[in-house]
Design goal:
Length: 282
C-alpha cells in the first residue's frame, strides 16, 4: 500500500478546479492557508493499490513573489514536496502557459503536463503534436477535457507512474541566460553552494536566479540567514548596472526573454498545426 501526493498547478482559468472536481468528486476538503485568504483544496482517491492525495494549488502565472497565490504555490512545493506536479495548460494558449512549466523545470520538482481544453483546441482546428512536445520537454504530456472528465484516468495513471519513476528526486533544468548572466549566475552558485545558503530547500541556481530577479521574499529571507546574502546582493547590483547601461534592460526582463526564447524554440519545431488561413482578398 502506497500513498502519493499530486499537486495540480497552472495559470488561472486553465481548468484546475474543474479537473480537481472531476478527479476527486465529493471526496474533497476546502480550507484556508494559515493567516491568508487563499483557499486550500484537497481531495483523495484510491487508484489500484495507491492512496492518492490531490492538492489544488492557487492559480499562478509564474513562481515569482508577485502575488500571494504564487508565494503559496511555491511554498507548498518546497515545504510539502509533493511527489509530482501536474501542470494544467490551456491547449489554446500554449506559449503563454508554458512559462510556468519552465519554472517548475528550473525548480527541478517532478512535473508533467496536461493539455486541457482539448475540445476548444479541436474546435479552433489546432492540431498539437503531444508526443513530440513530451519528447522535447522530457516529461509526460497528456490531453484532457476537464469539463467532461475525458483523459483524467490516463492522467492519473501516468502521474503515478512518473512519480514512482522519479522517486522524489528533483532534477533542476539549467537554462543558459546568455554570457552576461551566466557568468554572474555561476559565480553566485559557487557562493551559495559553499555557504549552503538556502540549499536545504532550493537548488543553488534557483536561489541565484531569484536574487537576479530581485525576488522580495527570497532576498528578505536571505538577510536573516547569513552574510552571504549581502555578497549576493552586491553581485546582483553589478549585473543590474551592467544590464541597464549596456543592454538597456534589467536582469529580470532578460531572464523572462530567455525563458520565452526557449519556449519558442520548442514550439517552432512543428508542435502546433493551425488551420489553413483563407485569403479573403481574392
Ligand atoms: P481554474 O481557474 O484553473 O481553477 O479554472 P476553472 O476550473 O475554474 O475553469 C475555468 C473555466 O474553464 C470554467 O468556465 C470551466 O468550466 C472551463 N473549463 C475547464 N476545463 C475545460 C475544458 O476542458 N474544456 C472547456 N471547453 N472548458 C473548460
Ligand atoms: Mg480554480
Amino acid at each position: 500500500n502506497h500513498t502519493a501526493t499530486i499537486a495540480l498547478a497552472g495559470n488561472p482559468n486553465s481548468g484546475k478546479t474543474t479537473l480537481f472536481n472531476a478527479i476527486t468528486g465529493a471526496r474533497q476538503h476546502v480550507g484556508n492557508y494559515p493567516g491568508i485568504t487563499v483557499e486550500r483544496k484537497e481531495g483523495s482517491l484510491n487508484l489500484n493499490d495507491t492512496r492518492v492525495n490531490i492538492v489544488d494549488l492557487p492559480g499562478c502565472y509564474s513562481l515569482s513573489a508577485f502575488s500571494q497565490e504564487e508565494l503559496v504555490a511555491r511554498k507548498v512545493l518546497v515545504d510539502e514536496r509533493p511527489d509530482i506536479v501536474v501542470d494544467i495548460v490551456d491547449a489554446t494558449k500554449l506559449e503563454r502557459h508554458l512559462y510556468l512549466a519552465i519554472q517548475f523545470f528550473e525548480l527541478g520538482i517532478p512535473v508533467m503536463l496536461t493539455l486541457n481544453m482539448m475540445d476548444e483546441a479541436n474546435k479552433k482546428g489546432l492540431r498539437i503534436d503531444t508526443e513530440k512536445l513530451s519528447t522535447l520537454l522530457k516529461c509526460p504530456v497528456v490531453e484532457t477535457v476537464a469539463r467532461s472528465g475525458e483523459g483524467k484516468q490516463e492522467l492519473l495513471e501516468k502521474a503515478l507512474h512518473y512519480a514512482a519513476d522519479r522517486g522524489g528526486v528533483w532534477e533542476p533544468l539549467e537554462i543558459s541566460y546568455g554570457a552576461d548572466l551566466d557568468t554572474a549566475l555561476n559565480a553566485m552558485v559557487e557562493k551559495i553552494e559553499a555557504a549552503r545558503f538556502m540549499t536545504n530547500r532550493y537548488p543553488a541556481r534557483w536561489v541565484a536566479l531569484k536574487y537576479l530577479e530581485s525576488d522580495d521574499e527570497i532576498v528578505t529571507a536571505g538577510r536573516s540567514i547569513g552574510s552571504v546574502a549581502f555578497e549576493l546582493e552586491e553581485m546582483v547590483s553589478e549585473v543590474d548596472t551592467h544590464c541597464r547601461t549596456t543592454l538597456n534592460t534589467t536582469p529580470e526582463a532578460l531572464i523572462a526573454d530567455y525563458r520565452y526564447g526557449l519556449i519558442n524554440s520548442i514550439l517552432r519545431q512543428d508542435i502546433i498545426e493551425r488551420p489553413q488561413q483563407v485569403d479573403r482578398r481574392e
